[in-house]
Amino acid sequence: VQLQASGGGLVQAGGSLRLSCAASGRTFSIDIMGWFRQAPGKEREFVATISWSSGSTYYSDSVKGRFTISRDNAKNTVYLQMNSLKPEDTAVYYCAARSGWFHSVSEGEYGYWGQGTLVTVSS
Q1: Residue 70 to residue 9: CA distance in whole angstroms
Q2: Is the dihedral of CA 30, 4, 115, 87 positive or negative?
Q3: N or C: which end of the chain has fewer CB within 10 A?
Q4: Residues 6+ positions from 68 with CB-CB distance below 8 Å
Q5: Do the beta carbons of residue 87 and residue 28 sit within 8 Å?
Q6: Which residue in 108, 88, 91 sits closest to 100, CA to CA?
Q7: Whether 93 contacts 47, CB under 8 Å
Q8: DSSP secondary structure code for residue 81 in this structure
Q9: Distance between CA 85 and CA 108 in Å, rounded?
Q10: Looking at residue 38, what is its pLDDT?
Q11: CA-CA distances (angstroms) from residue 51 to 37, 43, 65, 75, 121?
Q12: What is the reported pLDDT for 58?
């Protein structure tokens, strides 16, 4: 499985961005796709996950109500709509995929990773 993330950029606080993650290869092996992020000087942290089949979602408390994860199965693509962005959302955002139906928040549970896309939120 190969994952290609895109959509990052510079945005002012309060603004919006939409990230995309296109999957290719053995996509039939994917059950859960997720987004993680890593801010400068910090460890990578969980953001959101979505079930490839059911569309069920799970969010970290820090983004709940502001971010929305969705998927387009026909395009093998997952999106992360980010609204009401804050400077503390500044990070490199990574998409990831795993087999197994659990909405894991642990990066060690994900076997496939995209290259990351930088989101910078200015105050």
Answers
A1: 20
A2: negative
A3: C
A4: 80, 81, 83
A5: no
A6: 108
A7: yes
A8: E
A9: 27
A10: 98
A11: 19, 24, 18, 15, 28
A12: 98
Which pLDDT belongs to residue 40? Answer: 92
| Residue pLDDT, tens place only, 9-44 | 999 999 999 999 999 999 989 999 999 999 999 999
- Dihedrals φ, ψ of 102, to 5°? -80, 135
Q: Would you state the pLDDT for residue 25?
A: 94
Residues of the chain with pLDDT under 70: none
3-class secondary-structure state, position 11: strand
Helix-strand-coil percent breakdown of the chain, rounded to 5? 10, 50, 40
The continuous run of DSSP H or E covering 92 comes out as: strand 91-98
